[in-house]
Amino acid sequence: MEWTEEFWAHTPSKGSNGKPHDLRRHLLDTAARAKGYAEAFGAGNLAYMLGLWHDLGKYNPDFQQYLRDAKQAEEEGKELGRKGPPHAIWGAAHLQNLLSQHPQRSTFILPVLGHHAGLEDDSEGEQKILSESERGRWLKTIAEAIPTFGLQVPSPPEQVPSDAFRQEFFTRMVTSALVDADFLDTERHFGQERPEAREQPLTVEQLWSRFGGGRERLLEKQMREGKVPAPHVRQVRDEVYEECLKTASGKPGLYRLTVPTGGGKTLSGLAFALKHATENGLRRVVVAIPYTSIIDQNAKVYRDVLGADAVLEHHSAIQPPDNKQERQDLATLRLQLATENWDVPLICTTFVQLFESLLARKTSKIRKLHRLARSVIVLDEVQTLPPDLRAPTLDVLRTLVDDYGVSVVLCTATQPAFEMDAYTDSFKGIEQTQIVPQYAEHFQQLKRVDYDKHPNYPEAVLWPDLAAELKERPQVLTILNTRRDALALIRAMQEAEVSNIRHLSTLMCGAHRRKVLAEVEERLDKGQDIRLISTQVVEAGVDLDFPVVYRALAPLDRIIQAAGRCNRNGKDTGQVIIFQTESGKAPKGPYQKGIEKARRLVETRDIAEELNGTDILRDYFELLYRDVEPDEKGVQSLRGQLEFRQVADTYRLIDNDTVSVIVPYGDYAGHLRKWQEFPTRRGWRALQPYIVNIYSHEAKKLRGQGMLRELEENVYLWERKDKYDDLVGLPIDRDPADLIQYKYGENIV
């Protein structure tokens, strides 16, 4: 046996023809891959060093025996029954010893220490290494591995940022490069997927070359179907598109795309992103959206234009259990390897996935971060970002622009005035380019709706009265602030024998939502009766065109966004009716404060005129930012101390943990069977249309009622087909997407 085969990184596998994964080869290959990833942000040598050191602890004879025992147990069809000795800590300890005088040694140590279990708080990680009773013995053993494997001890490479926040984020990025490289090299060994075939099947240049023809075909199809906008609407859409193409030649940086609803933002924004990426040598486009319902529709438009293979939808993530014990059994490794890494040129994801990953600690979320370097990030409906987290959110966005060659596009009809925010300096002094300079003129040209207060306003409308009123409206959209209110109105409408009711929320799986949206669009096009009752998820980017929209009193930007689902093609004058709900309840926190500010403006300003302009929004955000702390939870203080675990626990767009539930809808069974037999990233992607995210405490309750069966940690199967309702989906009142700041136990006032 050659000496290189004496030391295993992983047990033999079918993918390696029964051979073990050679440890030296794994270290070198992981280092080379990590270097390639980190070179995108100037940290290639550092990532190479971390790749060499990350699994040196597996040189430990006890660990080598553990791998051999695990292989024997697998061959005998048994559980090993014990965990192996830790290994990540010893590579980290050796680096700590080498770099004891380096002022920023944490950036070298913590990625190696956490490449399985996740990033530790700086103080906790250092103490964990120093307090290890066998530290001296294992440091000596690790030192022996270096000449045995023919490795060279490098000097500390590259300059680590001196600013505390920039160092913190740099540590995340090099950790991401290391973790993804390690997982992919392990994946190659186990034959789980073919990484070389899967990475970058397309490029942004290829997607851009498809775009022009695809857009023309889509517009022709819409014309054949009679979806022809009024001439003045078409003129605005053409001007927006041309400005996007013209501005796309600019250098990477911060951009604003301000387009009134109905102005063609979805396609024009994608055109800007693809052309801008192509002309600047950027690697991918990430479109982040507040709600999964919008992902369904945007991704469909992108596929119609670019092809079925063009876009990755990522809203429900595998959440493997924390691998604190650094388990190396095949089942645990396969779940880790199946986590998403955004290795494609066009991704549609949610704000929760993007922003909580940017400040996460778990490897399943951190893994994809390095892919953001030299990319275009389009934040669609950016006004929905939580105002009480705006300081850390904007700081991370600015870091991406300043240090990682990223272009960020703030995209909405209702632009928040971040640069005028007197309470955080994250965007102070940054150059911003307005993609469509004449946006104010477009708002005047696309005045398509009249805003009215309900005759009962400011008094509430009772559910039975509202149901009777909607019965007289053949085509109407009603948007409520909470899922609970939506269900209450639906019950009242059913009792009043109102027909042609549809519902939309994220407690319906993606395949179900797509079916409902298709039915709604068809009935609208044919002039048939349709009454859609929805939560907030419909008002940001969903392309529906109702003649009348009822909107429960909400933050002002949400009311204006709701109007975007009314008379989109500008053929007549639509009507938006603002009303108070019977429950009078709404999510607490910034959302409730937004309602208070909106109420003041609705009751004191000429909403019929001003809500069709932009000045009132500037006044609204100024009032809101004055009343909402920009970093209410103290995230920035924790970031400055490199407290990664506490940052991840504190920076939450959804305050409570959610889990993935696979629902029995459509073709779910075949995809589920394949994923259970062999969990891969491709298999999880195929399951996305059949997944609903619910709160973990709801899952615990439903499991006790026999509704759910746990497949893996944080992944469940909905067992009762008869209890998945064709109208409302899962029979649950609380929808995590009601509001991304939703707080269980204190969520309603």
TrEMBL record:
Region annotation Disordered: where it falls in the sequence: 1-22
Classification via Gene3D superfamilies: 1.10.3210.30, P-loop containing nucleotide triphosphate hydrolases (3.40.50.300)
InterPro entries: Cas3-like_dom, CRISPR-assoc_Cas3_HD, CRISPR-assoc_Cas3_HD_sf, DEAD/DEAH_box_helicase_dom, Helicase_ATP-bd, Helicase_Cas3_CRISPR-ass_core, P-loop_NTPase
Keyword match Nucleotide-binding: yes
Family under the similarity heading: In the central section; belongs to the CRISPR-associated helicase Cas3 family.
Domain HD Cas3-type, residue spans: 16-184
Single GO term (MF): ATP binding
Keyword Hydrolase attached: yes
Protein name: CRISPR-associated helicase, Cas3 family
GO biological process, alphabetically ordered: defense response to virus
Keyword terms of this UniProt record: Antiviral defense, ATP-binding, Helicase, Hydrolase, Metal-binding, Nuclease, Nucleotide-binding
